[in-house]
Amino acid sequence: MFFWDLAQEDALDERTMELLSFIEEDAKRWDDAANHCEMIAAKLPPDHRASLELQCAVYRERAKMHRDIVAKLKTH
């Protein structure tokens, strides 16, 4: 492997790590949104909670998807 190839590989690794860090942080934000949503839902009358609880579940699923992507990329 030539020096140029190694330099390109290092730059790619650095960019990949930055991207993974961004995606991990995004997962935390989705979890934060779900927590906030759940706090609001808990204060609503039971007949008004369903749509907000569904939104919370969507946020949790989105956070999980982000964490799964990061885990998958870190193992390869």
Textual characterization of the structure:
The chain starts with a helix and ends with a helix. The chain has a domain at 30-76. It is built from two helices and no strands. The protein has 76 residues and is mostly helical. 92% of the residues lie in helices and 0% in strands.
What's the short story on this structure?
The chain is mainly alpha-helical and 76 residues long.
Coarse morphology: elongated
**Percent in strands:** under 5%
Record field, number of beta strands: 0
Alpha plus pi helix count: 2
Residue runs with pLDDT of under 50 for 5 or more positions: none
Task: Give the arrangement of secondary structure elements.
Blueprint: H1 3-42, H2 46-75
Helix pairs in contact: 1-2
Quick tags:
mainly alpha, elongated, 2 helices, 92% helix, 76 residues
